[in-house]
């Protein structure tokens, strides 16, 4: 095995059809970075979903003096007796794992904390506008939320029942849509990359038909004849992947981070996630370039 | 078998192996018909070439000379019949072992087939590089064959700086550098003037004297007549004459 020989042949091949090589690198880079972006989106959605799955609650807001809900207008603010009966009604459904009462003071404190970076909101919100509530964990959030909501509606002292999941669903829809779009574009580009690899290798094989015919004549093994072309395709794939890696780091640090500043409760993607996606992109790139080169060579370089 | 005495059957590891001592090429009732062609390119050819022989293959265009050479290289498979080359039954040779067969066969063509972007030395070294020979070995043997074919002092010339005869010498050096058992030459003097051809034939003769079997297809009557070697004449795919110390033939 003479690596120096193989690599000098590879270098000649890459240089001879430079335009095709550049086109190949660009397409591989873009398709891999889009694929990686799609994967990052998937991870972001999954992470966020599992983060919230354990935290999603059903909030039963209780009436305050300033509440305009019809039920509150009729019954006035929730009394201590009403609060106690609501708690026992909730426990009696046997659908909850925990029922926690958050008093108006605690709720206001939390509110101030969560909007600490948004001073006007804190400033113009009166203390008595933040209602006390029951924060409920359900055994089976998706299935039982409707039932608990129904039980609570209209009970004296209950203002409204809010399911956190319904808020999150909208966010998920947005992320899922973005992910699907990115994956579809990536798929099209990967097809383009495959065709370009095939075409580049075919051109390269045609350019070097003299060399390969002599190689076959003097008894070079198939491996020796085909390796330079295979390595050529793979190197183009690797360069494309390197560019894609740069783009992916950019996507992660700029795009996803700015998304998180819009939706502040999200979990950030770790560096491990990014590295994982980059490795997947590398394997995909090498596989696509390698396999396509190999199949093309079988057609054009028969012994 | 045409000569059962020459081929010895012995059981190898996986199959019955015939080793034909002394016989480097053995054709046993070989017929080759190309697809979409009625007349066979070669028909019922039986012949043996012994180790160290010099054989001229003559006959008009289309008589099957090239097919004969291609069959030896296993570039084509016979429609029927058996071929042994260098002691190997080509029908049993798997595709991935074909390169090893070709390493024992050197080839020279009418059109030289040199690489235009490599100089003399690099063209010859290429044949060894691509079969994975170590560089030290290449550095040792390439100058030797350059001397053998008479191109001393021209190792750094590019092919387009050489005459036709010199280019053919490079091609012969490339074919011979791996010390093949057989050298196949397909009209090596076809593009070369008669005076230069004599030099080419001298090189082929020199190669033959090292023990390499030479099979040369040619139309050049003067060369065949002057060499007085074995002549096999093909006509319409059949062997019509097989003569030791023969001449090109009166009919031409």
Your description of this structure?
The complex is a heterodimer of chains A (303) and B (252). Chain A has 303 residues and is of the alpha+beta class. In chain A, strands 2-3-1-4 form a 4-stranded antiparallel β-sheet. In chain A, helix 1 (3-16) crosses helix 10 and helix 10 (222-262) runs antiparallel to helix 11 (271-300). Helix content of chain A is 73%, strand content 8%. Chain A starts with a helix and ends with a helix. Chain B has a domain at 54-78 and 97-243: P-loop containing nucleotide triphosphate hydrolases (Rossmann fold), CATH 3.40.50.300. Chain B has 7 helices and 12 strands. Classes of the chains: A alpha+beta (303), B alpha/beta (252). At the A-B interface, helix 9 and helix 10 of A face helix 2, strand 8 and helix 3 of B.
Label this structure with key terms.
heterodimer; A: 303 residues; alpha+beta; Alpha-Beta Plaits; four-stranded antiparallel β-sheet; 11 helices; 73% helix; B: 252 residues; alpha/beta; Rossmann fold; six-stranded mixed β-sheet; 27% strand
Strand content of chain B: 25-35%
* Distance between the first and last residues' Cα of chain A: 20 Å
CATH topology of the domain at 54-78 and 97-243 in chain B: Rossmann fold
Total strands of chain B: 12
Q: What's the alpha carbon Rg of chain A, rounded to whole Å?
A: 31 Å
CATH class of the domain at 54-78 and 97-243 in chain B: Alpha Beta
Q: What's the alpha carbon Rg of chain B, rounded to whole Å?
A: 18 Å
Q: What would the average pLDDT of chain B be, to the nearest integer?
A: 88
